[in-house]
Amino acid sequence: MPLMKIDMIKGRNQEEITKILDISYQVMLEAFGAPEGDRYQIVSQHEEYEMQILDTGLGIKRTNQVLVFSLITRFRTVDQKQTLYRNLISPMH
After folding, report:
1. Is 43 exposed, middle or buried (0-12, 13-18, 19+ CB in 10 A)?
2. Domain locations in the chain?
3. CA geometry: angle at 58 spanning 55 and 61, to 5°?
4. Which residues, in sequence order, are CB contacts of 61 under 8 Å at separation 6+?
5. How far apart are the first and last CA of the chain?
């Protein structure tokens, strides 16, 4: 029963948020082998000034479309976590 919290800057419409939730749910199912229907997701929207997501020298340009995923789950292997993060990024681009 992973709990997925997604923080984002305000401004996305319902369709965009639903797509983000659906994609992240499918990625979580595949990466963690969770059973279908095991879906616990919470979206929190913030003013732009409430989220300070800065570059830490990696050369990644941040935009107001940034998403921050927080997962509360049982122990997962490094491979499972890497699969989750890799696959979260791929379909969103």
Report:
1. middle
2. 3-92
3. 50
4. 55
5. 27
User: Is-above-0.90 flag for pTM?
Assistant: no
CA-to-CA distance for 82 and 65, rounded, in angstroms?
A: 22
CATH code given to domain 3-92: 3.30.429.10
By annotation, the residues acting in catalysis are: 2
At position 38, the amino acid (one-letter code) is D
pLDDT in tens, 36-92: 988 999 999 999 999 988 877 777 778 888 899 988 877 888 888 888 878 887 755
CB atoms within 10 A of CB 79: 9
Give the separation between CA 24 and CA 84, rounded to whole angstroms.
9
